Amino acid sequence: MLAASGGFVFGSFTVASVALPLSLWRIAVGLVAVALAVIVANPWFSAACLVVLIFVASVEFSRAGTRCLVGAVFALLAVEVGAAKSPDQLVLAVYGLGVLAGMIATWAVGLNGIVPKGQASEAQGIFMFLFLAIGLLCSIAVAASLDEPRSYWVAFIFVLRGFVPLERQSSSVVAYAIFAGIGILLSVLLQINNVPIQVQLLIALVAAAIGTKYAAHPLPVSAFAFTVTIVLGSTTTMQDAVYRAEAIAIVVCLVLVLVFVLEWLLKIAGARLKR
Q: What are the phi and psi torsion angles at 108 (to 5°)?
């Protein structure tokens, strides 16, 4: 179910950012990268796929102002976790169906291309690459150092920040933590009260659609909605909720530090180029 959620978020966000059929090449890149990572089943190859996807995502943003392939990065993480628990063929099939469902649902409700484009420039592309690459590396390192079964959520939650416009990263991070925390709480309540899995899946899909529609909203509504989607994609207990709350706190600190350092470095580089 986690692979399906990741696929749905990727397919939905891509079509909402770039209307069909122009979004198809982005979908193809995400499908091929994830399939290769799962089929090869090598940690170093998967890491290389992540780096390549982040690079292509930064090029996409610098040229078109869209962030579709950030969804592919998130989907790759979701599928890799899912592949560790289920047969590869099943995970890939579920992921592909999730992508297709996200595309169809977004197109059917008329959300094609509704997400506003960002300020496309080479500097913005460099900032996105450094932000995602360094942040994801730090997230994975932190997750590996934690002796907790759900530590991978640090990387998951960090990648969700890639959907946020770069200029709002630091200013919205506290509100993001609050909204994501509410999303976790709602998801946990649904699961510990034994809500049928079919109902949970429906809620997850609706939440993904809401997250896509409000991706550019001043409040981090998408953080709440996407968190509901991905948390419902895995078995949850109260202890898992604590892990995810810890992950949010780590990501908030990481985003604040990373944005401050990168903005400082880019200002220095810009000042030197003007000399």
A: -65, -35
